[in-house]
UniProtKB/TrEMBL annotation:
Keywords: Membrane, Transmembrane, Transmembrane helix
SUPFAM superfamilies: Zn-dependent exopeptidases
Species lineage: Eukaryota, Fungi, Fungi incertae sedis, Mucoromycota, Glomeromycotina
InterPro entries: Gaa1
Domain of life: Eukaryota
Cellular compartments per GO CC: GPI-anchor transamidase complex
Name of the protein in its database record: Gaa1-like protein
Length: 631
């Protein structure tokens, strides 16, 4: 072996030794920095003040003309809608359609029905179009109001009454450059989905809906009104999360907030957290932390926080304005609601194209402060990099032990010599890395996850079988999914143990291959890091929650000579599995399954397939790892 080759091998061995020494410390440092970084997010110094990027919006710069005459109209609508609580859907729809026609709008209705999650959802959507007097109707804005509030029980009386009075008021003015569509939806989010699918002639779900006989242009933005009951309100809640964690353009939220603060001095609240903000009020660390947790929870679940959340699928920015009854300061009523909506629509009316100049990826610790994607993404990436370093560390342990190199002072022959020195290291590994079995285990676990997904997806069909035996539906599904998980893990553990015995007998007095569990854990860690990295771009909140849950167990857990340690690790893995998390959080499992299945079938929420097909299988792989033979 030549001197050059020996020097190169020495440098490589030195680098490998240094990496083996520092990688464990570095990955723990990355984990600590990544988690600690997340707790800096609520700090006022970390976020920035929001600003309007689209200069054409000019929020709060117009004189509003919504007056007490319109308030009297809204009050009359409210009294009439409240008195119709016991009437049929058809009678309610006829009243809404009649009032829209009186206001001079073109009107139409849409019937829809769907069977999802063992429940029949049906209703009638009512909508009208106020044609723009200044353009050819190629663009439109939507003002929507559902019959039921976000709790699904309380009637959205004030929201519908305000929408009717506002659109009647809009008819009196000629400055509109976009059509105004008023949409009164039935059946919750299913009604909005049915209308959007028919409007864009793009059927994506199993909803059976009648075709729309009335259309307008491309929808630029939408405002959804949710003002339940008939009382006054103390604060305005903003709901902006959409399906699968999508968010509207930040300019839309900023416009509403500027209008509320500048024109009407109404306290703003993110969601219904109970933390109220006035103009340029950033709040304290605790309130910002709570706002972030609430918003990240909605995004992680992929659950739209209102009817607005379904517009994002069609590249339509939307937001829900929610009336909060409790709060500080003076109350507000129809006058302030009408002024806010008018001023917001006047700003949106100025747009020459879709909102695009501001952020689509952000976090809001308070209404007037934001964290951009460049500031919130690094923690998730650090956690993923820590897992990759751990995977590389394990992969390095499967190589040969260091071989002492010959000294440069020894009699060194050229590489072309026939007889090379006996102490020279080999250029390849003598210990084989057999990855077929670990890769097969990973594939089988994910195949089991796919089966679990189809079982959960058909939960309500299986419930009909469980009812015959008098067993609760969710328990029956839990038993089936647990059995699938057990069969997959026990089968793989047995295969690993049999393979270990066979290898020991076949490689007697030879260098044994690398332990299967080390290779399996290395591959699984790298795969988990890849999932977290990719997911952080699509749904940062879900990526962060998954990272926090799995980082410590996945880093520490491995086979042990003590059975009690193995079973303690198994208990932790069961607790962080999907059934374990549902039980610990005291979630109503039946209702949770209902809405996850419904949102997957109707809206395309990917939370259920992600958990069943990616997260759950990785937990199964780790069960196999901790019960694998050590050598």
């Amino acid at each position: 072996m030549s001197l050059t080759a020996i020097a190169r091998l020495k440098k490589r061995r030195l680098l490998v030794r240094s990496l083996k020494k520092w990688i464990p410390k570095l990955r723990y440092l990355l984990f600590l920095v990544g988690v600690g970084w997340l707790f800096i997010f609520p700090s006022e110094k970390y976020s920035k003040y929001t600003y309007i990027s689209e200069n054409a919006l000019l929020p709060g710069q117009v004189n509003t003309y919504y007056s007490w005459s319109q308030v009297f109209d809204a009050t009359a609508y409210r009294d009439r809608i409240e008195s119709m609580s016991n009437l049929s859907n058809i009678e309610k729809v006829n009243y809404i359609e009649g009032e829209l026609r009186k206001a001079g709008l073109k009107t139409a209705t849409q019937n829809f029905s769907v069977i999802s999650s063992g429940k029949v959802i049906s209703g009638i959507n009512t909508f009208g179009v106020l044609n723009s007097p200044r353009t050819d109707g190629t663009e439109a804005l939507v003002l929507s109001a559902p019959w039921k509030s976000k709790d699904g029980v309380t009637t959205n009386v004030n929201g519908i009454a305000a929408a009717l009075s506002i659109v009647k008021f809009f008819k009196n003015y000629t400055y509109w450059s976009k059509d105004i569509i008023i949409l009164i939806t039935d059946g919750g989010e299913a009604g909005v989905q049915a209308w959007l699918e028919s409007y864009h002639d793009h059927k994506q779900s199993g909803i059976e809906a009648s075709p729309l006989l009335l259309r307008s242009g491309a929808i630029q933005a939408a405002i959804n009104l949710d003002f339940p009951g008939t009382s006054s309100y103390k604060a305005l809640g903003l709901f902006f999360e959409g399906l699968n964690g999508q968010l509207p353009n930040l300019d839309l939220i900023n416009t509403v907030i500027r209008v509320c603060h500048v024109s009407n001095s109404i306290p703003i609240m993110l969601h219904d957290t109970g933390h109220y903000y006035t103009h340029y009020d950033s709040g304290d660390y605790r309130s910002s932390f709570y706002n972030l947790i609430k918003s990240m929870k909605y995004q992680a679940l992929g659950h739209p926080t209102g009817s607005h959340g379904l517009f994002f699928r069609y590249k339509i920015d939307a937001i829900t304005l929610y009336g909060q009854v409790d709060g500080p300061g003076n109350s507000y009523d129809f006058f302030e609601i009408g002024s806010i909506v008018e001023s917001t629509f006047r700003s949106l009316n100025n747009l020459l194209e879709h909102l695009h100049q501001s952020f689509f990826f952000y976090l809001l610790p308070s209404p007037e402060r934001y964290i951009s994607i460049g500031s919130y993404l690094p923690p998730a990436i650090l956690l993923a990099v820590g897992l990759i370093f751990h995977a590389l560390e394990l992969w390095g342990t499967t190589s040969d032990d260091a071989i002492e190199l010959i000294s440069s002072n020894d009699n060194v022959q050229s590489s072309s010599s026939v007889n090379a020195p006996a102490s020279a290291p080999l250029a390849y590994l003598r210990r084989p890395r057999e990855i077929l079995m670990p890769v097969a285990a990973l594939v089988i676990s994910h195949f089991a996850g796919i089966i679990i997904f189809f079982v959960v997806k058909n939960h309500f069909e299986l419930s009909q079988i469980s009812n015959i035996f008098g067993i609760a539906g969710y328990l029956f599904t839990l038993v089936i999914t647990t059995n699938i998980s057990t069969i997959a893990t026990v089968g793989l553990i047995s295969a690993f143990q049999n393979r270990s015995h066979k290898i020991k007998s076949d490689h007697h007095n030879q260098l044994l291959p690398s332990p299967d569990w080390i290779i399996l854990k290395s591959i699984t860690l790298a795969f988990t890091a890849m999932i977290i990295s990719c997911l952080s771009l699509l749904n940062f909140s879900l990526a962060v929650f998954i990272s926090i849950i799995v980082v410590i167990p996945f880093s520490l857990f491995q086979p042990s000579v003590h059975q009690i340690i193995r079973y303690l690790e198994l208990i932790v893995l069961v607790l962080i599995s999907p059934p374990g998390i549902l039980i610990i959080s005291k979630t109503n499992i039946e209702e949770f399954l209902r809405w996850t299945i419904m949102e997957y079938e109707l809206f395309g929420n990917y939370f259920l397939p992600f958990i069943c097909c990616l997260y759950w299988p990785i937990i199964l792989v780790y069960v196999v790892i901790i019960f694998s033979p050590i050598k």
